[in-house]
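I am sending you the entry underneath: sequence plus fold tokens. Let me know what the token row says about the fold:
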Amino acid sequence: MPSPWQQTSQGVLLHIHLQPRASRNCLAGLHGQGLKIQLTAPPVDGAANTGLLQFLARLLRLSRSSISLQSGEKSREKRVLIRTTNPDGLIVRLQEALVRVDKKNGDG
């Protein structure tokens, strides 16, 4: 199965399937070839996109300024670039977050 992220010369590019207007903000696991993220924000006036970038910053313990939306501004399928000099460390944090989701869902 393809990975929901890929290393680039600038950092890590995340493939995300966003579900706006969810009951809570959370990483819900994998969806197709991307990370499924649920947010309470509505998909109106960029609120869900802003919420997504803030959620990722908190989840991955990064500054909000290091995260940018690359594509999918008006779509559920998004590409987010995380600029980092330590992509391996970031990927470890992503994997750990997915393991926590699996354990919570009883898959692991």
Remarks:
- Residues 87-104 form the longest helix (18 residues).
- The mean pLDDT is 94.
- The chain has one domain: 5-104.
